[in-house]
Amino acid sequence: MTESEHPKSATAEMEGALISCMMQAPEQVVDFAAGALKPSDFAEAHCGMLFDIIVKRHGSGDAVDLVSICSALMNLRVLEDIGGMGKVTEIYNLAPSPSFAKGYAKEIKAASKNRQIASIGSELTRVALEGGPECTSRAMEVVRRLDAILCDSEKNVLIPVKDVVMSYIDSFESGLEQNLDPAVSTGIEEMDKVLVGGIRREYILIGGRQGHGKTLLAMQLAGKLAVDGRRGLIVGYEMSAIQMLMRDLARETGIPLNQVMGRTPLEGAHTVQTLTRGLNMIADKWDVHFIEDPFVTMETIAAHARALHRVKPLDFMVVDYLQLVPLHNTGKEREDIQLKNLSDSLERMRKDLGCTLIAPVQLNDDGLIRNARSILDSPQVFFRIEMDEVEGEDGQMESGDYGKIKVCKNRYGRNNVSFRVFRNGPLQRFEDSDDNQPSKPKEKYQPKSKNRF
User: Fold this and answer.
1) Model-level pTM?
2) pLDDT given at position 445
3) Could you give the CA distance from residue 453 to residue 429 in angstroms, rounded to a whole number?
4) pLDDT value of residue 416
5) Domain extents for the chain?
6) What gap in Å lies between CA 269 and CA 38, rounded to an integer?
7) Rg of the chain over CA atoms, in angstroms?
């Protein structure tokens, strides 16, 4: 489809639609568009200006959402020249989906090429009519420019073998690096065996009933990745950053959590020195960032993750836990569908970043995922924590210190296998259960009313 087959309004709409895609999904569209087009390829001056601003801001790591772009245009004193905030908002809403961006870019490039050819034709005609001794050389210069335009549109037709070799080397090295990226031990020997080495760059879903340790296990895995030098982002909906840090300190130093939290005094100078060394180690060697906002949305999580990733590749993320992530309640979708969409979105982001994703999810009393069984489609690994139920001091049933972890889904290792574990609460970690350790008697557990979920 060429420009001659489109009225100008249609071409302008396509240009606006591409700008819309760039603002709606900058991570997926801007780099591609910047490599395929130049501001001069746009027939509409305001679209070329928006294109240039978006590309430069994205390259600098700045936001390119609707509000940020309007603010940038206002600072440049060109917002009113474009048509005001209303015009930019209209452009933002033009594209029905960012997935159409490549089609828009192709049409814009073709229209730009046709305009350039028409300009070359007019110039060549003028040179011929003017004549003179320099006519031939001037005409040859115009023809060379025409060749450049035509060849640029077909730049991938001729591929030197050297380029193919270099492309293969890049691909080979990338694959080699991936293979050399070792699995990180979980700290639980039986779990490492089932996972064939430990934690990999995949989506790990951890299910558990309330109080069974799903957050503890998630933070244990995150701590192992941090100790290995991996860069991480931890989103905590129930705990503050300082609360998460204190649990990390207990696990890494071997000092009971009550002492780390100041509930009981530290025992002697040696314990103080150990705690200090642990704090220094985490401050100096861990490359981890926390989000502790109980209302942070998926969009904000993604923005923070990609901002961190642009500075240095992000290796892992923890979102604790899925049912606490605020959902867009439009009244049109059931909560289970919204949770599945959330899980799918997290997996797409994980793939884009190439990192590990660890996400606890709450189970109901029947051991099923609360509100959304269908989210099991997204993760590559799904653990279910099943702690023994014992009678508490108040006579109510509660989770004990012994139990098992069942691996219900496992991409690389065995599925549907279980292994016994011991939950060391004071040190905030799961450990392999000693086979010689007699298990506490398991009391008969009566499920609570299903209506509470």
Assistant:
1) 0.58
2) 37
3) 28
4) 86
5) 3-113, 189-452
6) 65
7) 29
Going from the C-alpha of 354 to that of each of 91, 180, 381, 415, the distances in angstroms are 32, 14, 16, 24
CATH of domain 3-113: 1.10.860.10
- Please report the DSSP string for 206-218 in residue order: EEE-TTSSHHHHH
Tokens 């690389």 correspond to: 412
Q: How far apart are CA 141 and CA 162, in angstroms?
A: 30
Q: Is the dihedral of CA 300, 306, 311, 312 positive or negative?
A: positive
To which H or E segment does residue 410 belong? strand 397-410
- Segment holding 9, helix H or strand E: helix 8-24
Question: What are the residues whose beta carbons fall under 8 Å from the beta carbon of 404, sequence distance 6 or more?
Answer: 386, 418, 419, 420, 421
Cα–Cα distance measured from residue 248 to residue 250, given in angstroms and rounded to the nearest whole number: 6
- Residue 33's SS3 state is helix
Specify the residue for token string 């779990």.
191
Which tokens hold the place of 351? 């793939």
Assess contact for 387 and 425: CB atoms under 8 A. no
The number of beta carbons lying within 10 Å of the beta carbon of residue 35 is 9
In this prediction, residue 441 carries a pLDDT of 44
What distances in angstroms separate CA 313 from CA 3, 32, 355, one per listed residue?
41, 20, 8
Backbone angles phi, psi at 93, to 5 degrees: -90, 5
Contacts of 50 by beta carbon, 8 Å cutoff, 6+ apart: 19, 69, 82, 88, 91
| Joined tokens for residue 62 | 């700045």
Those residues of the chain that have pLDDT short of 50 are: 1-8, 153-156, 436-453
Check if the beta carbon of residue 450 is closer than 8 Å to that of residue 365. Answer: yes
Count of CB atoms situated within 10 Å of the CB of 373: 12
Element (H, E) at 382: strand 381-391
What Cα–Cα distance (Å) separates residue 192 from each residue in 40, 188, 200, 213, 414? 56, 6, 11, 18, 11
What would the CATH number be for the domain defined by 189-452? Answer: 3.40.50.300
